[in-house]
Amino acid sequence: MAAEKNNSAAMRFLVNSYIIQGQRAFSQNNFAEAAKWYKMAADTGDLNALCFLGNCYYSMMKFTEAVKCFRMAGRKGNANAQFFMGICYLEGNGVTKDEKVAVVWLRKAADQGDKAAKELLDKLPKRLTRKRLFGIF
User: Fold this and answer.
1) Which of 54, 89, 114, 126 is the most buried (most CB within 10 A)?
2) Does the predicted TM-score (pTM) go above 0.90?
3) What is the CA radius of gyration of the chain?
4) What contacts 53, CB < 8 A, 6 or more positions away?
5) If 0-12 CB within 10 Å is exposed, 13-18 middle and 19+ buried, where does residue 57 land?
6) Please, is 48 exposed, middle or buried when counting C-beta atoms within 10 Å of its C-beta (0-12, 13-18, 19+)?
7) What's the Cα-to-Cα distance from 92 to each of 21, 70, 102, 118, rounded to whole Å?
8) pLDDT tens figures, 65-109
C-alpha cells in the first residue's frame, strides 16, 4: 500500500478518509466510533484529528482524555485546541478551574485569528484579560 511506504499524497488521502468517517460518526452522536477513526488519523500526527479526538472525549465527558489531546495539539500550535484548552480551564473540566490560565490559552488561539477565542476574551471581565496581570505576555 502506498500510504505504508510513506507516500505523502496517499497518506493524506488515508488521513482524510479517517477524518470523514469520524465526522460521520460524530454527526450521529456515535462518539466512541468517531474517536476510533479520529485516533487513527491523530496517530499519523494530524493535529486537527487530535483536536477532533479531544472533542469526542469531551462529548463523552472524558475530560482528562480530552485535555490530553487539546494540550498536545495546542502546544504544537493548533488554534482550535488552544481555544478548547481555554474552555476547559474556564469550566474546570479535566483541569483545575483557572481563569488566568484560560486567558493564556484563549489569547494564543485569538492571536492566530480564532474568532470564537476573540469573542470570548471580549466577554471576560477586564481584570482577567489585562496583559500586565500575567507578566508572561
Assistant:
1) 54
2) no
3) 16
4) 35, 38, 39, 42, 69
5) buried
6) middle
7) 30, 14, 10, 20
8) 999 999 999 999 999 999 999 999 999 999 999 999 999 999 999
